[in-house]
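Anyone? Bumping this.
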Amino acid sequence: MIEVEQLRKQYGDITAVKDVTFTAQPGEIFGLLGPNGAGKTTTIGCISSLLTPTAGHIRVMGHDVVRDGVAARRSIGVVPQEIALYDDLSARENLGYWGGAQGLRGALLRDRITEVLELTGLLDRAKEPIKRFSGGMKRRLNFACGIVHQPKVLLLDEPTVGVDPQSRVRLLELVRDQAHAGACVLYTTHYMEEAQTLCDRLAIIDHGSIIAQGTLAELRSLLAERDLLRLTGVFRPDAVREALSHLEGVEIIQSDETQLALSVSDASHRLPSLFAAINTAGEVRGTTLTQPSLESLFIKLTGKELRE
Amino acid sequence: MRFVFTSAVKDLRRIRRDPVMLLTWLGIPTLIALLLVVIFGRGDARPNGKLLIVDEDQGIGATLLAGAFSQGALSNMISIEKVDREEGRRRINKGNASALLVIPKNFTTALLEGKPAKLQLIRNPAQRILPDIIEQVLSMLTDSAFYLQMVAGPQLREAAQGTPTDAGIAQISVQFNHAIADLRKYLAPPVIQLETKVIEGKTDKPGGFAALMLPGMLYMAVFFIAGGLATDVWRERTSGALRRVVTTPASFGAFLGGKLLAVLLVLALVGAFGLAVAHFLADLRVSNFPLAVLWIAISGTGLYLFMMLLQSLASTERVANMLSNFVLLPLTMLGGSFFPFDLMPKGFAQIGRLTPNGWSVTELQKILDGAAVSPVAFAAVILFVAAAWLVVGWRVRRTAC
């Protein structure tokens, strides 16, 4: 179990994480979704003792990570964003080293190494130096090193960055397996589809603050089942606002001279009337209609796309 | 504690997997020893010159003069050969000797009677040091002959006139004694005492120039290896391995301790190999092999931590490498690696001996010469290693996050 209360991390005048609060339960995959620089890695860094929080409290399996760091770290397995492995060692030797760092010894360590190698599909390449591995294989081994000691809490920091689709599917399956086995999984990502398909609960983070959290259904309800209509062309923002103010169930999310984003209920049936109104305030050249999703929620909450 | 060994095994495996690097490290001292042996020869290599003597006097004075070059250390450097004037001229003109000394007829008579005599020395212009030595020795001998004439001229002239009787010898002795008594106030002034000091290990050090150079050269290799191993921390930092270590329950001190243990073993191996090569190829005397290896390993580990400290002060790997080179090259030059302390100007040698590597070289030299183990030196290095381990651990952990 991870309990984060009013977490704040400052670097001089810059606040990287601001009053972040959430709880992740055993057997649950809790997602932290946000763009690059939103504060996801800083949050994981504080939970894993890499960084000391400026304020707030973090408990892992009941242990305070600042005051009782070693006990907290015994429960944690970290899969970092980078491939934190030794290229000149074999997969088995890497696992032996990281398992040893987690306190595993002897036969138990040997058995666990074989188990995770099998789990990640690397058993037949176990003795090769990993510099010969593909990117996807290294990612899987990186994951294996994080779970070799069967942690109760698993922290995954964008583990699928730069991974081929096949390896990504395999990795996501492995993450689900860990949660099914009872681990509390904290998963950070900036991939919407990953967060939607994998996470039981989610927190959307931007500029260091959590702007929404809950289950996927709870988050979708924030959109009130509205579609996201994105228009490109040439617009006069004030005139657009005036023209749309007479239509019910239409909310302007973003508006400038070239782009317009609207939250609209039942948009597919109302397109003719919408275009008629907007054409009085500009010229529409392109249209995208999106069903309620995390992406549309993110745009609604932050006024920008996740990839920005 | 267990993680120290796990960490050391990991680093040793990684070093073993890079055979080119390992061979380079072992190759450095071997190559240096070989080069020195090829350039300066083995331990018996000394300057060797020939003095040709044309003895036209055939008296005791000429014999004594020639004999002076056959005494003590001179005999190891200069061999003499008696030739006639024509052959002497021919050979010196061909450059087959360092110098040609012509002792004229009646030299002994002139010496005994206090008359002027002229010795002729022809130098080989192609050589500088050995003809200089011969000229200096000859100058000293002529000065000595002059003073001998001043002190005991009458007695020598009397003795030269025929075989003296017992009474004559007694008379000469008494006269000699009086002359010495008159001169005593100059020869032995009571306020001045001559102190003779024998410097141990200097007079009979085997191995010649190559052996003189090798301890410093060995430390150059140790310093370069220490510097090379210290840069590994950047690879671990870049890959994220350092950050991953911090997230485990293992202590960062144990992680660093494992690195130190691996470095200690590598340097012990290189030190043993280097000393063995130096002993067999360059005739280096190694009085206490295990202690010398231990010293190289421990002091080398200190140098490794020193380089690690520099690495941890830098903001990027490039800056770290520049900083390392900036410090490493002057230190190896000053620390007796390029020029032995014995051949350096006194002031530079004093500064060089204070550098970490220079001090290590000096202590190693003492161990090689069979001097007693200096517990202070070992304690100083171990204290430094402990202190640097704490500081480096703190710095590296801080920069890792």
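Late reply, but here is one note on the structure posted above: The interface with chain A takes residues 2-3, 6-7, 10, 13-14, 17-18, 239-241, 243-250, 255, 401 of chain B (CB under 8 Å).
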